[in-house]
Design a protein that fits this description.
211 residues, alpha+beta, four-stranded mixed β-sheet, globular
């Protein structure tokens, strides 16, 4: 299965969306997207397809070009998040719709307290980046989370007005750290394969054939 097919399948099987659209400037990707049930109603511009293009700009462009500015909700689901399940989207959307918030972001816990981070010095030595936390216990530090790199939910009109993934009225949707991988490198891809194998061997019986 092509990597993008997992995200398309999760979106389609969630039953949450009127349309599932892939924004791309690559005809090969567009062809794969269509084969797996997504729409590709436009070709993304070169200006929004380089290494400096941001998620916000790409999503706003897709909303406008798809004629979806009047939709109540829009979801940005990354093609590099193969461990997102249909149930994740359904549950998150239900929670988001009831919350009244303007946006939702998937989050995950760090595997080590980031406030205890070390910095590398020029001569190979290390030092605490925040020395005031050197003697603080992990459980005494503020709970910090990071963007899980999975999906975002937006109320369309406020998003188009403000255009931000995290604004003044954004809520978190926690995800299991063992189902969070944002694929940018070959190492990330191998890690994703390992997680897929792990979950395929540890799926509860009631989830088989569903999410």
């Amino acid at each position: 299965k092509p990597l993008i097919a997992h995200s398309i399948a999760a979106a389609l099987e969630s039953g949450c969306f009127t349309r599932v659209i892939v924004s791309t400037d690559d005809e090969k990707i567009a062809d794969v997207a269509r084969q797996h049930g997504a729409e590709t109603p436009f070709v993304r511009s070169a200006e929004l397809s380089d290494d400096h293009a941001g998620t916000v700009e790409v999503v706003a462009d897709a909303i406008r070009r798809a004629g979806a500015a009047d939709a109540d909700f829009v979801c940005c689901l990354y093609p590099t998040a193969p461990l997102v399940r249909p149930g994740d989207i359904r549950d998150a959307l239900d929670h988001f719709a009831k919350s009244g918030a303007q946006s939702l972001i998937c989050t995950a816990e760090f595997d080590y307290p980031p406030l205890r981070a070390l910095k590398l010095l020029g001569d190979g030595r290390v030092a605490f980046n925040w020395p005031e936390n050197a003697l603080r216990r992990s459980q005494d530090l503020p709970q910090l989370v990071h963007d899980a790199g999975a999906f975002y939910l937006f109320r369309t009109k406020p998003f188009l007005s403000g255009q931000a993934t995290i604004g003044n009225d954004t809520i978190a949707w926690p995800m299991d750290r063992l189902r969070v991988v944002d694929i940018d490198t070959e190492e990330d891809f191998r890690f994703a394969e390992t997680l897929v194998r792990f979950h395929s061997q540890n799926v509860p019986p009631q989830d088989v054939g569903d999410d």
